[in-house]
Amino acid sequence: MTDPSAAPSPRPAGTQPAALHETELTAPVSLTLPSGRLNPASIGFARSPLVDTSGIGGRHGWGRNKRWEYWNVMTPAHIVALTVSSLDYAAVHEVWIFDRATAQTWGRTATVIPVRDVALPGTLAGGIAIARAKDLAVTVTPADGGQVWRLHAEIPGAAFDITVARPADHDCLAVVVPWSPRLFQYTVKDVALPASGTLTLDGIRHEVPAGSWAVLDHGRGRWPYDIAWNWGAGSGVLADGRTIGIQVGGRWTDGTGATENGVVVAGVLHKISEPVQWTYDLGDPLRPWQVAGGGLDATFTPFYDKRSAMNLGVVASRTDQCFGAWAGTFRTDAGVIAFNGIEGFAEDVHNRW
């Protein structure tokens, strides 16, 4: 078996692959058929969360079902993250807060076997996501059909209460990725979402001020046992005052005919329907990363690597999630957009799960 503590090398540089033909979904559709297999009509991408994933979980595909909500919030002073997840055989949750000035962290990770005290709605904004474990409590509460989200978490020494307000007519990137009729994933990546609220760290209250940005990763699907991926996201404001959200991924979508790549400018998704090229050195992850393809030419410069690893033999994981800022250009039909200082993250992950 490959050891996830030793990451696969990034794809070597070379000729950029040809554009893919991706269907845009414009009407609600179920991810699964009554048999539990992938519904072919759901394959494609959408600008809003149109896919019903209530068929994920239960008796179909037990052990391969993966359901999660991940939220990241970057403020001028802190980085905040929460995960609520169920992997069928275990519930895995995390709350993490990072002080950007001192590099102090507050965190709690919980693995609950067998799964209990976790609730994940069948569809995005279809209910409250809840996680409870020793020294950890998380609720993710949608309102107004998912236009507003309240993120609340408590761990020893730290808590936060953050509201995320999606701008009107703001596109997300929702994608169904098909490995096979039995293995597939529906992901919603929602970037450049304004956030406000408070953090309480060791009894001291901190504001989540204007200029704070949230990113959502909503996932429902049935995954291969051994998988590796890249994911990067960034949120900010261009020199002309328009918002920009960067969303890029790789490796896990190779060969599926789908990508999770796009750039959201002033709330409008510009879908990148081809794989992007990732170039970086996992031996020195704080060196700049390069991501290019589909009109995007971006450099990500990290300032912190949140590294985690676990190896229990059959089940193992290794994550390098680097936080920093994006700079570069994105070519659209209307011209070239230059961006700089767009804060976010880029990661390299390998799981056996």
Poorly predicted ranges = 1-14
What's the alpha carbon Rg, rounded to whole Å? Answer: 19 Å
Helix content: under 10%
**Beta-strand residue percentage:** over 45%
CATH superfamily of the largest domain: AttH-like domain
Return the structural class: mainly beta
What is the total tally of β strands? 25
The total count of helices amounts to 0
Largest sheet: 14 strands, antiparallel
CATH class of the largest domain: Mainly Beta
Order of helices and strands: EEEEEEEEEEEEEEEEEEEEEEEEE
Q: In the residues, how many domains can be counted?
A: 2
Head-to-tail CA distance between termini: 13 Å
GO molecular function, one term: hydrolase activity
Keywords: Hydrolase
Protein name: Glycosyl hydrolase family 2
Blueprint (SSEs and pairs):
Layout: E1 29-30, E2 44-46, E3 51-52, E4 65-74, E5 78-86, E6 91-99, E7 105-112, E8 118-119, E9 129-133, E10 136-143, E11 148-155, E12 158-165, E13 173-178, E14 184-201, E15 204-208, E16 213-222, E17 226-237, E18 243-250, E19 261-265, E20 268-272, E21 277-279, E22 289-293, E23 296-311, E24 316-332, E25 335-352
Parallel strand pairs: 1-3
Antiparallel strand pairs: 2-13, 4-5, 4-16, 5-6, 6-7, 8-9, 9-10, 10-11, 11-12, 12-14, 13-14, 14-15, 14-16, 17-18, 17-25, 18-19, 19-20, 21-22, 22-23, 23-24, 24-25
Pfam families: DUF2804 (PF10974)
Organism: Microbacterium aurum
Protein name: Glycosyl hydrolase family 2
